[in-house]
Amino acid sequence: MSEFGVRGAGAPFSFGIVVIACGLGLAPSRAVGGQLQLNFETLDYGTTGTFITGIRGETIVGNYVIPGGTGGLLYTSESGIWTPFPVATANGVNYPDSYSASPYGPTFGSMDGILRVVGVYKTGSSPYDLGYLYDGAAAPGASLLTLIYPEKPGEPTLFTFPHSTFGNIAVGDYDTQLKTGNAFIYDIPTGTFSTNNKPGAVSTTAYGVYGDKIAGGYGAFGPDGEPGFEHGYIYDMKTDTWATYDHPGALFTHFEGITGAGRGDEYNLVADWIDGSGVHAAVLHVDADGNETWIPLEIDGATTVSANSIYQGTAVGVYTDATGVHAYRVEIPGIYNPITNDDTVIAGAPGSVAIVAGKGDDVVNNGKVRATGTGAVGIHGDTYGVINNAGKVVATGKGATAVEMNGAFGSLLNGGVVKAAKGAVAIGTGSGATGSLVVNKGVIDGLVYVAAGPDVRFENSGWLGISHKGAGTKHLVSGTYAQTADGTLALRMGGNRNDKLKVLGAARLDGAVAPIFANGGFRRHYTLVKAGDEVTGTFATLDAVGLPSFLVASLDYANSKVTLDLAAAFAGTTGLDHNQGAVAQALDDAFNKGGGIPKGLEGALFGLSDPDLPAVLDQLSGEIHASTQAVLIGQSLFTRQAILGHLREGTRTPGGGSDLAIGYAGDPVLAPPDVSGNPRQPFWAQAIGSWGSIDGDGNAATVDYSLGGVIAGVDLVDRDTWRAGLAFGYSQSSADINDPWSTADTQTGTVAGYADTSLGAWKLRAGASYGFNAIDTRRSISLGGSTSTLKADYDAGTGQVFGEVGYQAAVAGAVFEPFAGLAWVHLATEGFSERGRAGALDGSSSTANVGYSTLGVRIAGDVDAGGMVFSPRLAVAWQYAFGDLTPETAMAFAATSGAGFTVAGAPIAENAALIDAGFDFTITPKARLGLSYVGQISGSDYDSAVRGTLSWAF
Fold this sequence. Notes:
This protein is mainly beta. The chain contains four helices and 72 strands. It has a twelve-stranded antiparallel β-barrel. Helix 1 crosses helix 3 (about 615-620).
């Protein structure tokens, strides 16, 4: 209010809204003719007295009376809520370290957005008003800057009273002596003041600014040089010209605020004026031709009415009545005339514009605006104009723009939808645009490219993003970006590309960020926001849309940017076994620390559900390589049995006893064989066929295997009490896992040496062998609707040493031999590289060592069968295994780095029963045939073999 009015400020209590209908008689002479009905709303905060001092858009500021001063308030028309402003304090002043304060002129925007407000406060050390500038978007956050006009020598500054702000300037007045005032213009970017007094005036105040127009009052000199009457003025900053205005019949006129009237060069102002009857309030409408229309503001029952601010057609101020001081708001019909659209308009021709606004023109869109032509524009805004969109503006033409901002300090207030198709722009700026301002409380769906210099201010309190396909768009805000708690920034993520927001100034963040993931690859890091100055605040919510359940997203704030970090979390899936967990951890490591998940796997893996993951991890594990080790170690038994079996039979003579475990059975006193007439059979051969399985343990799957082969040997040294020989063998085996399907075929060539000796009834037998294994594996991976087969060829070597000791005794015509044996098996496997598509593995060389101890008994006898000796036999034993019973293979995914893991194969049984049952036929004194069933049985494994033996002598 004017300097002959009341100054005030605000804080917290309940408030009421009272609507007062008043019949107003219009003043004659340049006043609106006829009767104008105005509806005044009383906006009270508490009961101590409320003052409204400024309005812009939905924001109203003011103060309320507290003991010894006033407290600052902000009122939002949308919500109807009063808020302590700029910051709540315990004493109700709502300004730090002060006893009285009041905000005055707001801009567009929210407290935690781009809102700027000027105001004043008083401290105990300063009896005069000090100015302040509140900036909701200033880095590193909402800031309060004290404004004090610089003192000159001999002219100390008393009051500094900023009243209004627009664009990059604030206006107000300062005093160096109490009876005169000086108007100032404050440049916000540079922080500099300049005096702006009307030439020849004794005192000048500046209370309102809009565009390039400043309004206030000045005092002229009287006839004798003394201060005279006060007049209202409008100062044009572009032309440096002053226009004087006086309310008809007024002695004093002072403008309290100014706003655009909807069309270029048309303005609405509020004024307080004095005549002989007292203080009055009025609204002045000035049209483009300079014609004035004065509208009185009178409230029934009020003793005094003061007008303090105006925006478009809404005036605010205070009035007094018998109950105290109250704030009011009133709509003035007919004085705000923007370009208004309630229908559907289309810019279909190339380069056409649906709605064109010139300098100072406002646009109100409640309908639909479409830019379908190439390079067409939906709404073209210009200097100082305000585009208020509550409808829908859509650009679909190639290179078209839904809303294009041009000129200086134009504003877009979006509460509707602004949308652009691919190749079009939702919000853009013309080549000459500077200082564009955007407040989004609706939906912006499309490219935002606001390149209007460093003074751009962009607030997102709605939804900003792009819904159509094609990640990789870069939004640009060339100045300040502020997102409030109500805002969502949605950015599309697609493989190696993603949408991002580039802010050349500072970015202040809150609300939500919503990365929207589509099918495709994933990176570890995505830059979402990058600021040229700094990033302050953080997004309160990370809402990743379409993010696979096996990825965890987080945000990192460093180096003036916001980065989305993704971390794979396959290993965090519940219910995984060891092998599955190892593969899952390898996938995590590949993505999080290594070269990434192989391309052929990534999309399909991240598309899985939690229940589907374990089976896929089994397919990827390559456990056939580890289980093959268990099979090869287990099959070493057949070489041992073949050699030990030959050594056992070598101590008997044809017809003299069983070859199972006894060298001779027919002689009850265990005499040595009669070699003079019945030579031993130094040449021998065995053929074997076996089949079996090793059960899975809840980790590795069950492996089924089969083997077929031969082994033949010759006794090279044969003495009465000992002998030694060599053996050679060849076998083929196959190991199969059904789920996941995989197989390993192995060809083995074996070389062995053996020896035995007798010490009376004690029999000592020993041997060593080495098997050369050529392994050929195949396995399949079915993932993402396709199946691939992976193959590998590599070698392994199976070495073993073994021996046993037995004690023979003749019992009731049979030979009985308790025995004990030991064996040590060493398997060395070379590294390998699988061939095939996604999921191929590189395997490291590995070794496994397993020991076996055996404790059992054999029994055999001879039966005459028509000239041939039939020798049945049976052996049973307990076998105990120790060492590397669960073979492991270290592998890594071949198509990346940092993705190593170790899988365990099917486990070798620790305890097993050995059964060897069969018979021999001595068909000639120099030849013998044998047939046996050999079984190895445990709670988890079984192995069955049929063995045929031929021994002969020359």
